[in-house]
Amino acid sequence: MFMEIKNLKKSYKDNLVVENFTLEIEKREFVTILGASGCGKTTTLKMIGGFLKPDSGSITIDGKDITNLAANLRPTATVFQNYALFPNMNVIENVSYGLKFNKIKKPQAREIAKEMLETIGLKEHIYSDINKLSGGQMQRVALARALVLNPKVLLLDEPFSNLDAKLRVKMREEIKQIQHKFGITMIFVTHDQEEALSISDKVVIMNKGKIEQMGKPEEVYKNPKTLFVADFIGRINIIELDGEKKMIRPENIILDREKGTFLGKIHDKQFKGVYVTYFLNSDIGSLQVDALNSDIYEVGEKVYFSLKNN
Ligand SMILES: Nc1ncnc2c1ncn2[C@@H]1O[C@H](COP(=O)(O)OP(=O)(O)OP(=O)(O)O)[C@@H](O)[C@H]1O
Predict the structure, then answer these.
(1) Per-state percent for the chain, helix, strand, coil, to nearest 5
(2) Does the Cβ of 12 fall within 6 Å of ligand 1?
(3) Does CATH place domain 236-307 in 3.30.420.280?
(4) What Enzyme Commission number(s) apply to this enzyme (predicted)?
(5) Nearest CA-CA partner of 143 in 87, 186, 201
(6) Strand, helix or coil at 261?
(7) pLDDT per residue over 186-242, tens digit each?
(8) Ligand 1 test: best mutation among 18, 21, 32, 41, most atoms within 8 Å of CB?
(9) pTM across the whole model
(10) Which residue CA neighbors atom 14 of ligand 1 most closely?
């Protein structure tokens, strides 16, 4: 296995914030650690990057135990949420700065930085003042600065959280392209479930310092092992059938005016664009149902509904 994280543990005084964190990562895999604010994502990433010492556990990359190595000696590079750029340096100085620790001479470092900035779409801004860049451009500088170090593993801590919704989606695509281009292994931290599902090969869902479930995005979405995962990744209805509680996704309930297994009454609806979310009362519970906007039901209307298996 390319990367092995075993039983990482971290407490701040009496507060145990990461427990038994064990994860295997293949080369070129895109792994996302997903969880609510405060669940221990950043703490875990900092331990991997060498910015925090774990209380116990180990981290191996490419056969080498790096648990006790300083951050700058690890084969990792980190892109932080706030970018952590040097405000007194221009773009190329920011990107080439880290290379001096790799004993690369200044002219060569600038050449490497320039090439990376061109690759990453910042050709026009190579000599720009950092403070005059947009959020998206700063994000690219931060990425370029990490990538020039040629890390085996790139760590990204909520890197798009300061960007607007459209730019976030664009940056998601870009980061995947960068990953393919450089063949790099990435560990990405986010609290945004849609981002995690759309970008990752593997999603690791954390809850209160522990891994709740991990797997491919489709796997964790379709087969959530716990109510927490089901609820965190997407939305879920809890219904009671023959005395048994069952989870069903809003898109797996089919509405029909004429026929169906159950009858319900719509008490609210939200138009979401391609689909509409209906809120129903029924004998088997209160439900949210996502239906395509081709057939619109009205609040107060009684409708039949059936359940799909998945
Ligand atoms: N330096 C610190 N000293 C004490 N407690 C800390 C410290 N850093 C983090 N914590 C606590 O550890 C827990 C986990 O924090 P962490 O930043 O890892 O969570 P997170 O999942 O990344 O959250 P967020 O998405 O809000 O950044 C939180 O309860 C936090 O208050």
Answers:
(1) 30, 35, 35
(2) yes
(3) no
(4) 7.6.2.9
(5) 186
(6) coil
(7) 999 999 999 999 999 999 999 999 999 999 999 999 999 998 999 899 889 999 888
(8) 41
(9) 0.89
(10) 40
